[in-house]
């Protein structure tokens, strides 16, 4: 009998410190108008010293488990670019803090596409019979890897976490995830990257420059690649699901930039007003962006059971992906 992963719980978590455009503009050659016009962002949240990615993941995960009505899962997948440590993975720490016992726990690293890769991992585990319930979390403290002097990146990103609980179910029931499309292109590794990191290369006379430990992005090239790859991936899963573009009630794309989201909607032929957006309130939260957008839209009552939802993302690697989902009745956490 075919098994499918069904969305059964949802939760989000933001650190308490709110950072406005005006606060950043005070130390950068920028302004609130400049940031809003180019990104659509007016504020973001940043973790204070001592707040770890695992802490935000626990906040989102606990809310998702409460929303699902059952605190037990067989596995946990954490998507993050900013783990607590390079080694070991952050997921076992999160599992321990959540009281998940000896559940399987591992990290996925695909930058802004990380949540979709993690979602596919959890769905695949359920489909293969390896788990009945899986908690999937996207969590980031991206502010820790930003160059505070770089206007092009420091105004874009924020910290946060979002999570969903998946349970085994029937492919035809409301809440079941549809087919996935995932891709990568390592030729674009330098477009979205932290140049330094890990053990030093053999034969190096000196270490990397201090700025090489910060996140960098070639924005103009990324813009068009993101639109192209997400558009292609979205169309692929629509075809596999048997949906027409006009059947889609909500597009939930990675919240990278409001211009990218609007251009993507145009690219696939979907009215812009069907694109869910929370980037103005939280900024780009990388792997946390899609589940946070879902959590905020659900809390606002914008998602109705039976709505057809298209998820898609693009991130460093380069990586991209998409899937479909018919929205279920989910308790608000």
Major sheet: size, sense and barrel closure? 5 strands, mixed
Assigned CATH superfamily of the largest domain? Thiolase/Chalcone synthase
Specify the helix fraction band.
Answer: 25-40%
Q: Kindly provide the radius of gyration, computed on alpha-carbon positions and rounded to a whole number of angstroms.
A: 19 Å
Strand order, biggest sheet? 1-7-6-4-5
Tell me the number of helical segments per DSSP (H or I, 4 or more residues long): 10
Please indicate the percent range of residues in DSSP E strands (runs of 2 or more).
15-25%
The appropriate CATH architecture of the largest domain is 3-Layer(aba) Sandwich
**Shape assignment:** globular
CATH topology of the largest domain: Peroxisomal Thiolase, Chain A, domain 1
Helix/strand-derived category reads alpha/beta
CATH class of the largest domain: Alpha Beta
Number of domains: 2
Name the poorly predicted regions.
none
User: H/E order of the elements?
Assistant: EEHHEHEHEHEHEEEEHEHHHEE
Number of strands: 13
GO molecular function: 3-oxoacyl-[acyl-carrier-protein] synthase activity; beta-ketoacyl-acyl-carrier-protein synthase III activity
Family: Belongs to the thiolase-like superfamily. FabH family.
Domain Beta-ketoacyl-[acyl-carrier-protein] synthase III N-terminal: 107-186
Organism: Streptomyces sp. CNQ-617
Protein architecture, described:
- There is one protein chain.
- By secondary structure, the protein is α/β, with parallel strands linked by helices.
- The protein folds into 2 domains: about 5-170, Thiolase/Chalcone synthase (Peroxisomal Thiolase, Chain A, domain 1), CATH 3.40.47; about 175-195 and about 205-325, Peroxisomal Thiolase, Chain A, domain 1 (3-Layer(aba) Sandwich), CATH 3.40.47.10.
- The chain has 10 helices and 13 strands.
- The chain has helices at about 20-25, 30-40, 55-70, 90-95, 115-125, 150-155, 220-240, 260-270, 280, 290-300, and strands at about 5-15, 20, 45, 75-80, 105-110, 135-140, 160-170, 175-185, 190-195, 215, 250-255, 310-315, 320-325.
- The chain has a 5-stranded mixed β-sheet with strand order 1-7-6-4-5, sandwiched between helices.
- A hairpin with a 3-residue loop joins strand 12 and strand 13 (about 320-325).
- The protein starts with a strand and ends in a 7-residue tail after the last strand.
């Amino acid at each position: 009998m075919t098994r499918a992963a069904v969305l059964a719980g949802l939760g989000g978590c933001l650190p308490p410190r709110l950072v406005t455009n005006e606060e950043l503009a005070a130390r950068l050659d920028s302004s609130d108008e400049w940031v809003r016009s180019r990104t659509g962002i007016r504020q973001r949240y940043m973790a204070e010293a001592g707040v770890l990615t695992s802490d935000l993941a626990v906040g989102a995960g606990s809310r998702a488990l409460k929303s699902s009505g059952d605190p037990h899962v067989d596995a946990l997948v954490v998507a993050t670019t900013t783990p607590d440590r390079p080694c070991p993975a952050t997921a076992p720490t999160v599992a321990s803090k959540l009281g998940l016992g000896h559940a399987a726990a591992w990290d996925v690293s695909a930058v802004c596409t990380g949540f979709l890769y993690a979602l596919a991992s959890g769905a695949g585990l359920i489909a293969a019979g390896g788990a009945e319930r899986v908690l999937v979390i996207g969590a980031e403290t991206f502010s820790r890897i930003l160059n505070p002097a770089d206007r092009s990146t420091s105004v874009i990103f924020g910290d946060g976490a979002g999570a969903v609980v998946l349970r085994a179910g029937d492919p035809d029931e409301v809440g079941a995830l549809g087919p996935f499309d995932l891709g990568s292109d390592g030729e674009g590794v330098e477009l979205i990257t932290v140049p330094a990191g890990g053990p030093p290369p053999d034969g190096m006379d000196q270490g990397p420059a201090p700025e090489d430990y910060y996140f960098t992005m070639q924005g103009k090239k990324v813009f068009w690649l993101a639109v192209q790859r997400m558009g292609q991936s979205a169309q692929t899963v629509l075809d596999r699901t048997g949906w027409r573009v006009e059947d889609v009630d909500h597009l939930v794309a990675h919240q990278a930039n409001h211009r990218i989201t609007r251009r993507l909607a145009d690219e696939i032929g979907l009215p812009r007003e069907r694109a869910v957006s929370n980037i103005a309130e939280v900024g780009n939260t990388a792997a946390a962006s899609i589940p946070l957008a879902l959590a905020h839209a659900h809390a606002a009552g914008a998602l109705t059971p039976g709505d057809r939802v298209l998820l898609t993302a693009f991130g460093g690697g380069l990586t991209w992906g998409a899937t479909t989902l018919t929205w279920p009745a989910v308790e608000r956490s």
